[in-house]
């Protein structure tokens, strides 16, 4: 009798854990189909820092970043602009629009003429927002770039 009640307690808490997990998974499953397939995000890969009238191209490597791994977010300037911005401070802040578990900020490094690279590590499957901030001459400008992360 005692043993049976302990077992049923265990069973009950296992059920609770399962339902907690599946509601989270359900939330993710809802989000995933609504996120654009990576091919259709190509049109938004060009962004403009309005305060600087500066156009950039954003590229991810791999194209759909892997969770819990280091991925590259490249911010590429037109060749003619490269020299002018090499001392700018560029940073990337990652968040998930559909849930609130904080933000992670990483600095982007100027790795070659016209290209800043930030190493990003999304922690969950789903849709992420990268807020890319460029600071120069005491001014700052931010653009947002959406992407999905997969296992
Ligand atoms: Cu999340």
Can you walk through the features of this model?
A hairpin with a 2-residue loop joins strand 7 (126-136) and strand 8. The chain has helices spanning 2-34, 82-85; strands at 46-49, 54-61, 71-77, 89-95, 104-112, 115-120, 126-136, 139-149. The protein is built from two helices and eight strands, in the order αβββαβββββ. Helix content is 25%, strand content 42%. The protein is α+β, with helices and mostly antiparallel strands. The protein starts with a helix and ends with a strand. It has two domains: 1-34; 37-149, Immunoglobulins (Immunoglobulin-like). The structure holds copper (II) ion. Keywords: Signal. Residues 1-25 form the signal peptide.
Q: Keywords, please?
A:
eight-stranded antiparallel sheet; 151 residues; alpha+beta; Immunoglobulin-like; globular; binds copper (II) ion; 2 helices
In short:
The chain is α+β, with helices and mostly antiparallel strands. 25% of the residues lie in helices and 42% in strands. Bound molecules: copper (II) ion.
Looking at CATH, the homologous superfamily of the largest domain is Immunoglobulins
- Structural class estimated from helices and strands: alpha+beta
Succession of helices and strands: HEEEHEEEEE
Q: How many separate structural domains? A: 2
Radius of gyration: 21 Å
Give the end-to-end Cα distance, rounded to a whole number of Å: 44 Å
Signal peptide: 1-25
Keywords: Signal
SSE layout and pairing:
Blueprint: H1 2-34, E1 46-49, E2 54-61, E3 71-77, H2 82-85, E4 89-95, E5 104-112, E6 115-120, E7 126-136, E8 139-149
Antiparallel strand pairs: 1-2, 2-3, 3-6, 4-5, 4-7, 5-6, 7-8
Copper (II) ion (CU) binds next to loops.
Keywords: Signal
Signal peptide: 1-25
């Amino acid at each position: 009798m005692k043993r049976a009640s302990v077992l049923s307690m265990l069973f009950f808490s296992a059920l609770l854990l399962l339902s907690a997990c599946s509601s989270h998974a359900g939330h993710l499953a809802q989000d995933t189909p609504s996120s654009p397939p990576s091919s259709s995000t190509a049109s938004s890969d060009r962004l403009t820092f309005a305060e600087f009238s500066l156009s950039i191209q954003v590229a991810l490597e791999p194209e759909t970043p892997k969770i819990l791994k280091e991925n590259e977010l490249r911010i590429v300037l037109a060749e003619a602009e490269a020299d002018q911005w090499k001392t700018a401070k560029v940073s990337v802040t990652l968040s998930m629009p559909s849930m609130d578990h904080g933000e992670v900020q990483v600095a982007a490094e100027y790795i070659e003429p016209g290209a800043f690279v930030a190493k990003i590590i999304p922690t969950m499957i789903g849709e992420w927002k990268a807020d890319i901030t460029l600071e120069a001459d005491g001014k700052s400008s931010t653009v947002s770039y959406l992407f999905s992360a997969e296992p």
